[in-house]
Write a structure and sequence with these properties.
Two copies of one chain form a homodimer. Chain A is of the alpha+beta class. The first copy, chain A, has one domain: 2,3-Dihydroxybiphenyl 1,2-Dioxygenase, domain 1 (Roll), CATH 3.10.180. Chain A has three helices and eight strands, in the order βαβββαβαβββ. In chain A, strands 2-3-4-1-5-8-7-6 form an eight-stranded mixed β-sheet. In chain A, a hairpin with a 5-residue loop joins strand 6 and strand 7. The longest helix of chain A is centred in the first third of the chain and has 12 residues. The first copy, chain A, is globular and about 40 Å long. Chains A and B meet through strand 1, helix 1 and strand 5 of A and strand 1, helix 1 and strand 5 of B.
């Protein structure tokens, strides 16, 4: 299990990508539209920032922005076996958002844990590929 | 500039350290009291979680918990030269919380940027040592 990325909810992924490019020397290395989100990855020496900009007003990130404003949304950890990581989470009594791995951004398998059982931290598991 | 740690505000660092130890195989590698905080580092293959538990009710993390509840508080990036990173931030028009590097947890020099000018993301620079 390794750190993979910090997920950031934003109203303006382009502006934040420009700033983090200048501020942190973190270039844009991937972007896509996934469901109701524009997703932008910035690379920082082997890990990433994942910028999440809602494309409509009804998605979970749009609601997150309404409630909390922009900022850090989740932390993502990479693992060779997302299903096994979910089994470990179940054995720890952690509530799951995703009972099984599902397709996520950049072609990765992903699964989220419920922050209510992880100290308020939204944790994402990301499959290696 | 590399990812160093995710800072997490918590009311119960021991419980969260136990959970993340079991869930993520992230052992406790350092703990200390720093000003009005108990600070606990968990290691995850070369990066860390930094758990921040207030020791009194008046500090910034205590106020953060009152406002937001427990969860991800900041992202920390390591750099060989914190002062140079602050100069870059100034040149990008970023507002600084710390105008100069100051002593932080685990013997590192640290400095924080103001989240109002970094997309709501509280960014900490950490000196390598």
């Amino acid at each position: 299990m390794r750190f993979h990325h910090t997920g950031i909810a934003t109203d303006d992924a382009d502006a934040l990508a420009d700033l983090f490019g200048d501020l942190l020397d973190a270039p844009l290395v991937h972007e896509e539209e996934l469901d109701d989100l524009r997703v932008v990855f910035l690379e920082l020496e082997g890990s990433y920032f994942e910028l999440l900009e809602p494309l409509d007003e009804d998605g979970t990130v749009a609601r997150y922005l309404d409630r909390n404003g922009p900022g850090i949304h989740h932390v993502a950890l990479s693992t060779a076996d997302v299903a096994a990581a979910l089994d470990t989470a179940r054995n720890c009594g952690v509530e799951l958002i995703d009972e099984e791995p599902r397709p996520g951004a950049w072609g990765h398998e992903v699964a989220f844990l419920h922050p209510a059982s992880t100290g308020g931290v939204l944790v994402e598991f990301v499959g290696e590929h």
